[in-house]
Write a structure and sequence with these properties.
Blueprint (H helix, E strand, L loop, with lengths): L4 E4 L9 E7 L6 E2 L4 E6 L4 E5 L4 E6 L6 E3 L3 E6 L5 H9 L28 H4 L22 H10 L17 H10 L29 H10 L17 H13 L9 H5 L8 H16 L2 E9 L1 H13 L7 H15 L5 E3 L4 E3 L5 E3 L1 E2 L4 E2 L2 E2 L7 H17 L12 E5 L18 E5 L3 E7 L2 E15 L5 H16 L2 H4 L1
Parallel strand pairs: 12-16, 16-17
Antiparallel strand pairs: 1-8, 2-4, 2-7, 3-6, 4-5, 6-8, 9-19, 10-11, 12-15, 13-14, 17-19, 18-19
Length: about 500
């Protein structure tokens, strides 16, 4: 019996349950070596590349670009070239992880030929023309910031990334930049087979966010029914198989009944599917808002003394760039140690009490929000916290964080003060028990000992999960936090 190996959807981090196929680097029939890049997978936070565990021939690709696959599902089959197709099908049938229905054949029928892959397209199969001299070069371009796809295409096309103008986020070279450079040099990048297909009309509406049973989703795909057009009569408000069949019956009974959208209106509307990160953010925040009974307590804190300490630190240490947010994280860490009942996670059944303050700091990205974590912030000084937050934020924006650097945490801090926001309410980052929202520090009139004065005031809003944190406990935490902020020497000692 031949040696058959499978490549499955990996699990990068405890919270990962699925990944989206971004791009395949191989096609069926390709001969590969162990360690070769197989496929780019986009998770809710990062894009990683899955490598080949063994060498051999790619015999099956069981997922398409843009498809969302559960962790553990089979993505590809690697086997020797002389392995019979029937043997591969039998092997797949015996796998514990389910495979797509297209790979599961009845025992009494011969396997259908595999669908045509990218190499069947004449445009894709043709070797690339020699790159223009203006794009080639011997310089080392390994230090040029570029997306994984852009770097791979540049390598295939013989393009030196130092010769390409970058327009991507944070100065990265993107695939669009590669295509623009080739066009300027009189070349055209070959389009994938899917782009060369005849016009089939407008793309289908994205229904990936609709809750549906796996059977209903597969049936909708086979019948060409959008889950957006289906009733949701199944358990937990999901679309069921019967709902899909009913929608299919309605569309076939009244062909062409849906009026075509007005062209002028359609021209002003751009339909964009949600990215994997945006879908995950939507699902997590909706679940947190639905399951965790939020309540909020607020406090106004005078931070003139804190700002003076910040200025002194930055003046005394030339390498320091301490921000008000860095000091806020340190103060939260001290308050979490003083009031440990807030330093918790809750999964619906069990409360996990943390000894150290692992504080997640919200960082805004173009695609959404990510919360890298400062581990053990209570044991670190302000300068160490400042440098770590700056490093985590930079790598978050470049998409190079490791899963353990943004998953978990016992408490979150979200600061919108740099946008001039006075105050706001934040949604709890489940399974954490609380999140602090900080607005801008601004001068306001205050009354001290019966006399009017001016002070720099910061408004803080603490959102807590009332299942595990009561009002008195939240108030004690916010009171402790105010004490550390208004008397910074007590947290820097």
């Amino acid at each position: 019996m031949s040696v058959i190996s499978t490549v499955t959807m990996p699990k990068w981090g405890m919270e990962m349950v699925e990944g989206e196929i971004a791009e395949w680097h191989v096609s069926e029939g390709d001969t590969i070596a162990a360690g070769d890049d197989l496929v780019d997978v986009e998770t809710s936070k990062i894009v990683n590349t899955v490598s080949a565990p063994v060498g051999g021939v790619v015999r099956r690709l069981l997922a398409s670009a843009g498809e969302v696959i559960a962790v553990g599902r089979v993505l590809a089959v690697i086997a020797p070239a002389d392995t019979p197709a029937e043997e591969i099908e039998q092997y797949l049938a015996g796998q514990a992880a389910p495979v797509p229905s297209s790979a599961q054949k009845p025992a009494d029928t011969a396997p259908e030929p595999a669908p045509a892959k990218v190499q069947d397209s004449p445009a894709a199969a043709a070797p690339p023309a020699p790159v223009a001299a203006s794009l080639a070069g011997a310089e080392d371009d390994s230090g040029v910031a570029a997306t994984p796809v852009a770097r791979r295409v540049a390598r295939e096309q013989g393009i030196n990334l130092t010769r390409v103008s970058a327009s991507g986020r944070h100065g990265r070279v993107t695939l669009a930049d590669i295509e623009a450079a080739l066009q300027a040099a009189g070349r055209q990048l070959a389009k994938p087979h899917s782009a060369a297909r005849p016009d089939l009309g407008p793309p289908p509406r994205d229904d990936s966010a609709v809750a549906a049973s796996p059977v209903a989703r597969r049936l909708a795909r086979e019948l060409g029914v959008s889950l957006l057009d289906c009733r949701a009569s199944g358990r937990h408000g999901r679309v069921s198989k019967a709902d899909v069949e009913a929608a299919s019956g309605r569309s076939s009974a009244t062909p062409g009944a849906r009026p075509a959208p007005d062209r002028e209106v359609a021209a002003r509307v751009e339909a964009r599917p949600l990215s994997g990160m945006r879908r995950t953010i939507a699902a997590r925040l909706q679940a947190s808002k639905r399951e965790a009974p939020h309540f909020r307590v607020q406090a106004e804190v005078e931070v003139d003394g804190l700002l003076a300490v910040r200025e002194q630190l930055n003046r005394q240490y030339s390498e320091a760039k301490v921000s008000l947010n860095d000091l806020l994280v340190k103060a939260c860490a001290c308050a979490l140690v003083a009031v440990p009942g807030v330093n918790v996670q809750f999964d619906g059944d069990t409360v996990q009490q943390f000894a150290d303050a692992d504080i997640a700091v919200a960082v805004a990205l173009d695609e959404g929000l990510i919360t890298p974590i400062v581990r053990g912030a209570n044991r670190k000084g302000v300068l160490a916290i400042s440098n770590e937050i700056r490093d985590l934020a930079t790598r978050a924006k470049l998409g190079t964080l490791r899963p353990e650097e943004f998953q978990g945490g016992s408490f979150s801090v979200s600061n919108l003060g740099m946008y001039g926001i006075d105050q706001f309410d934040a949604i709890i980052n489940s399974p954490q028990g609380a999140i602090l929202a900080a607005g801008t520090a601004q001068q306001r009139p205050v009354v001290r000992q019966g006399e009017l004065a001016v002070a720099t005031v910061l408004t803080l809003s603490l959102s807590s999960d009332h299942r595990i944190i009561d009002g008195a406990l939240a108030a004690r935490f916010l009171s402790a936090l105010r004490g550390f902020l208004e008397n910074p020497a007590t947290m820097l000692a």
